Amino acid sequence: MAPMHRVLGRSPRGKLVECGGIWKKQNKDTGSDYFTLTVRDHAFNANLGKAASQDDMTLQAIIPWGPKDAA
User: One Pfam family, short name please (predicted)?
Assistant: First the structure.
């Protein structure tokens, strides 16, 4: 099974890099569809939200907030 959408980002040098996927799943109890986001690096922490200077409310940005092992 492949993800419904692939999540791509740009490296500091401008190269497209695949960093995760969006999977469509179905709730076993209700039968309704939902989506999950998978990011490849397990030490990566981020929230979904509106990016600075973003006017389109239909877009979500991945906003990283620091390493998992930060002391």
Answer: DUF736
